[in-house]
Amino acid sequence: MNAGKTLFLAAVAGVVLLTYSPSYAVSAQDAEKFQKTLDELEALQPKKHQHGGRYSKAFKAKLQQVLKAAQVLLDQHGVRWNLDPANSEIILITPLRSGHSMNQTAYGVQKTMRGLEVEYNPKELLGSDASALFEEDRGRLIISADDVQRGEIGSFLQHELRHALLQNRLMNGRDTVFFGFVEAMPGHTIGEAPYNQQFSFDEIAAYSVQIHFLGHELEVARRAGNSDLVNTRAKEIQWAIDVVTPLLNVLEVSIPQALTTIEVMEQSSQTTNPWLGLSKLESVLGDDVDCSGFSNGAAGLFFFRNDVQFKNHKKSVVFANIETGPVRTVVGTVDLGFRNNLKVATDRLKSDGTSVGASDELAPVIRQVRRKMLLLRDRLKDLKQAYADLTLVLRGKRYDDVIERTRSIKHAVVDQPQDLSSYP
Ligand SMILES: [Zn+2]
């Protein structure tokens, strides 16, 4: 079920987004050189099926050229950096309280997100086919090549920052409606690559924030009368809409299906208790993750005590695991005061290994899971409408309306503290 490892697939490198608009305060020649060496590096990248294979000498030599070219640009922008002491193939952005905005971002991220560092790591980006990345396990945010060119944080890092922010909330023991994921059952696919096997609900929030950031950039370009840049931003927004729409479509179908499954099981449980007349206890997953759970094939509740992710808080995590056809919808929720109930339920289950009459203990868990699904379902409705409105505005080239539309999109993904409690 793979819940112990959180995947934050970043935005894929869009062709549109790699075009460089030479309007920034760096030498055009140096900017071109950076782009050229980067293209050459990409051509030397080992093929996907050789993943885990060796990088050639030519690749390593070219990588050094890319890093040098990036350093030249960062210097010209006035961004302070140093090489990672542990890995000379990585440029770290120096965290500074004042100075260049990129240094300030690195400072803010480090202060507020558990020491998260900001780096430029072309090898990692190429290897993951991403424009920017949030690597939770490494505690790193990786800026895009475009950020290096521009000397400022662009939309892809905004996307990754959103992932980091949500993850940080979870680690602090706060739940969010975008905590969960969908995955394809074996032999099936969902959505579109790179999200065709699994994606986090989080992507919806991350792309929405990214789109609003692009909307803001479009507005700035529009006010400056730079119609080329307005067109570029419009294309970038359209690209992001095209990536996130299939994900919205998957969720739009899978969330109501999962809700129905839960309701059916709850209704029938009044007599035979199938929600809990469940199969035997699922066992421990790994060294650092305790997992116990109930399932009956269509749905299950799994309880994790994940000491890696939550080592400072010893939080429990519950995943409701609901299978409907080719899709498994996994709604995650952080320990919200029902840990004792879970303990009672799982202890009873352990004692005979087959079944428990623990519906009282589990009722609050199921209620919380359902609340999250209801909230997400309503959010998805708002989002679909907001995305449809934005698409119309873009098609009609009504660029002065874009910022208002992207603001609605961002608004629909902001967590409100009272959100969950307003559902039964
Ligand atoms: Zn993402």
**How confident overall, as mean pLDDT?**
80
- What is the helix tally? 11
Overall domain count? 2
> Which strand-content bin applies to the residues?
5-15%
Q: Which compounds are bound in this model?
A: zinc ion
Taking the sheet with the most strands, its summary is: 6 strands, antiparallel
Please state the overall shape, judged from the principal axes of the Cα atoms: globular
Q: Tally the beta strands.
A: 11
Secondary structure category: alpha+beta
Question: Can you walk through the features of this model?
Answer:
With 424 residues, the chain is of the alpha+beta class. The protein has 2 domains: 1-153, no CATH class; 173-424, no CATH class. Helix content is 48%, strand content 14%. It has helices spanning 28-44, 57-77, 101-112, 122-128, 145-150, 155-171, 202-223, 227-268, 339-352, 359-395, 402-411; strands at residues 81-84, 87-93, 117-120, 133-135, 140-142, 180-184, 198-200, 289-295, 299-306, 316-324, 327-334. The strands form 2 sheets. A 6-stranded antiparallel sheet has the order 7-6-11-10-9-8. Strands 1-2-3-5-4 form a 5-stranded mixed sheet, sandwiched between helices. Strand 4 (133-135) and strand 5 form a beta hairpin. The protein starts with 27 loop residues before the first helix and ends in a 13-residue tail after the last helix. Residues 1-23, 270-288 and 353-358 have low confidence and may be disordered. The structure holds zinc ion.
